[in-house]
Design brief:
heterodimer; A: 0% strand; B: elongated
Chain lengths: 85, 192
Amino acid sequence: MTRNRFFTFIWIVLVALTLVTYAMGEAGIIGSGAMLTVLLIALVKGQMVANYFMGLWHVAPGWRLLILGYFLIVGGLIALAYGLN
Amino acid sequence: MTTDARNQYEGLPGDFAIWIFILAEMLAFGVLFVAYAFARAHDVALFNASQETLNRTFGAINTMVLITSSYFVVRAVNAIKCDLSRDCAWWLGMAWLLGAVFISIKCVEFYDKFSAGITLSTNSFYMFYLALTFFHFMHVLMGMIILAVVIVKARRGGYSSRDHTGVETAASFWHMVDLLWIILFPLIYVIR
């Protein structure tokens, strides 16, 4: 039961972060700060899904680092491209 | 795969082969995400104007739909670890239904765009938008087929707390679909 309660908490946080991203889009907030915030939210959400929902928290650290590296590299290159504006 | 075999692969949930597939798919999507971002840098005004025509509310709803379906899949895995086959099938069934909701919303979005005369060749933004979202759409469909097979087996008592690799394999694939949308939604619908 405690285990399910923890996953319910993670789900609520993921929904809340999605609403923040949506609100930022609807408010038309632009600029480097907004772009980095939205990417950071995606990074946090991705880590929560990978570590807790996918269960990588319990496996060898290399797998967690692989997913973290993926988000950092893809997110970093996206940020770099948007910085070229 | 037995518990011993799981340990051999450092405890990764599900079949090891699905993780190779997941990494390959994430790499393919990653290249497309970065390509989109650099293509946008060449014509920011066009990308921003085209992005405005998207239904951001649909995109946000679909994000929550996939996150919730992922949560239901987690509950299914937890249920089978407690030998609750029926509960496992029920949670997977709920996740499948949310997959159907996602597909339905995407179909409405695609219909809106196609009926407005928008195609892959309209401009660079729509080429990326349609290609990325359709590619992802196909993965959701594939995930629903996998979930359906696992649901049928779970309903027949085909999994247990000792043998549930199939459930974990399907769950891992479904979470990957969610993971990709977590990047796709802000990239295509929000960031400008």
